[in-house]
Amino acid sequence: MELDKVFDALASKPRRLILAYLSEVELSTSDLAEKFGISAPAISRHLSVLENAGLVSSERRGQFVFYKLNGDNLVNTLTGYAFEVCPVSRPLKRESRAMAAKKKGVRHEEDS
């Protein structure tokens, strides 16, 4: 992990918000694009920066790519703590938990 890549990735507010959404649940590019109301290609560019920095990882399932937070990454651990006290990110993290609970035990329709 190159520290400059991490700082570049975290310098963008949309990327920090993406990390908040991924804090509790893995999501596809289209899931994130829907949450942010921006195009899937724009979300893909942000996810690429986050993945290159080692903050998220991806897994292709059929025609969809799902992203998840690299939880064992120290930066993500510290960022997760910051999300708990940040008034902007706290609601996103709470929503992420709710999405994870909703998906738990239910196959995602994109997985079929």
TrEMBL record:
Keywords: DNA-binding, Transcription, Transcription regulation. GO terms for molecular function: DNA binding; DNA-binding transcription factor activity. Residues 1-89 form the HTH arsR-type domain. InterPro entries: ArsR-like_HTH, HTH_ArsR_DNA-bd_dom, HTH_CRP, HTH_MetalResp_TranReg, WH-like_DNA-bd_sf, WH_DNA-bd_sf. SMART domains: HTH_ARSR, HTH_CRP. It comes from the Bacteria. NCBIfam families: HTH_metalloreg (NF033788). This is Metalloregulator ArsR/SmtB family transcription factor.
